[in-house]
Amino acid sequence: MTTRTLRNGDSRDLPIEPGQSMAVVAVSGTYSASVIAGLAAPSTIATNATGGTYGPYATGAVIRLQSSAASEIDFDVDVTPAIVSDTHVLAKTDAATGGIELSAGGIEIPSAGPAFTFAGIPAASLMAGKTVRVTDVGKSGSGSLWISDGTKWTPINGAVLLCSNFGTLAAPLATISASASKFAIPASEMVSGNSIVLPANILSIGQSVRVSAYYMHRGANVGSWDVEARIGTANTSSDKAVTEGYGSAGSKALHQLEEISIVSATSFIDNKVVGFNAETTNVSALQTTTFNIASQMYIGFYCGNMIAGNFIDLISYRVELLA
User: Fold this and answer.
1) Closest Cα partner for 200 from 230, 233, 231, 229?
2) What is residue 127's DSSP assignment?
3) Is the peptide bond before 186 cis (omega within 30 degrees of 0)?
4) Which among 171, 242, 257, 264 has most CB atoms closer than 10 A?
5) Cα–Cα distance list, 237 to 120, 157, 209, 301, 313 (Å)
6) 75 vs 169: CA distance, rounded Å
7) What phi-psi label fits residue 190: left (phi over 0), alpha (psi between -120 and 50 degrees) or beta?
8) What span, in angstroms and rounded, lies between the C-alpha atoms of 175 and 306?
């Protein structure tokens, strides 16, 4: 006869003709079998089994074959039964996390995993080695992939683009014309109230945050100007700087690219980026003000000083997390 299949808790009563046997193979999961009619009835012939051949039954019988949950059980009934497995992908829901696990032939199939907001991700201890898609971290519409090491969640492959936005020289993201001002960046992924919002616990000790930004200063008035990106819980200019840049009078472009290293739950080192084989008078320093990875934090773009009558445009920014 032809190999047939039971899956995921299904059962079937199988008539066995005189002289026939039943062969069973569990591609995944287990099965139980009992004789419910015939000379051997009632009797249990298999419990939580993974394979076997039963018979022959000289005068025939009826066997009830029951598959376990999340299983694929192949069987054949014949004088000389033979199994030719045609493995299918099985899916089951993890009761603890709500995630869907795929397997074929008893082997787990890696997948992108279920989708969560970052605040809604199950505890890392419940999903060691599993991946999830985080919908509110990363580019809008795609999010980002994270993997659990059993202790914490980290970006898969070790890095993730948290957010970015780009304007043009003619239509910058934001413009300011006064000192002690904050750039009003437009709403985009992870942006609320003119700041990039970092969910609590998205950062971990030993990771880095890299921020890049491109500015254009417009105006001929004499005087210097400065801009910076700041990170912290206050969401004000009292937060510590991730990037700092300075310029002189006239129309000038400034590209900032710096990163911080997280050394404890409440402190980071502001790594100063310099050119190759060069040095800088700005030294790295340990920062502890308004920084706490267990709390929601913000990244905002600010101007500390400029001369009235000039303008500074924020053309673009990009924020990355490096695990």
Assistant:
1) 233
2) S
3) no
4) 242
5) 30, 33, 19, 9, 18
6) 69
7) left
8) 13
Per-residue pLDDT reduced to its tens digit, 254-287: 888 888 999 999 999 887 654 444 445 556 778 8
User: Three-state SS for 158?
Assistant: helix
Is residue 21 a contact partner of residue 54, using CB atoms and an 8 Å limit? Answer: yes
What pLDDT is stored for residue 277 in this prediction? Answer: 47
Rounded Cα gap, residues 65 and 4, in angstroms = 12
Give the tens place of pLDDT for each residue, 286-297. 888 899 999 999
Peptide bond preceding 42: is omega within 30 degrees of 0, i.e. cis?
yes
Is there a contact between 46 and 73 (Cβ–Cβ < 8 Å)?
no
What is the pTM (predicted TM-score) of this model?
A: 0.64
Across the beta sheet with 72-78, the strand order is 4-7, 72-78, 20-28, 51-57
Can you tell me the distance from the alpha carbon of 61 to that of 163, in angstroms, rounded to the nearest whole number? 66
Q: Which residue has the tokens 């029951």?
A: 66
Place of tokens 């002289």: 19
Contact 254, 217 (CB under 8 A): yes
Query: How many Å from the N-terminal Cα to the C-terminal Cα in the chain?
Result: 56
Alpha helices in the chain (DSSP H): none
Average pLDDT on 199-216 reads 92
DSSP letter for 60, please. -
Residue 40's region, left for phi above 0, alpha for psi from -120 to 50, else beta, is alpha
Distance CA(271)–CA(205), nearest Å, equals 15
> If you compute the radius of gyration of the chain from its CA atoms, what whole number of angstroms results?
32
- Nearest CA to 71 out of 16, 115, 8 is that of 8
CA gap 317, 302 in Å, rounded: 13
258 exposure class (CB count in 10 Å sphere: 0-12, 13-18, 19+) = buried
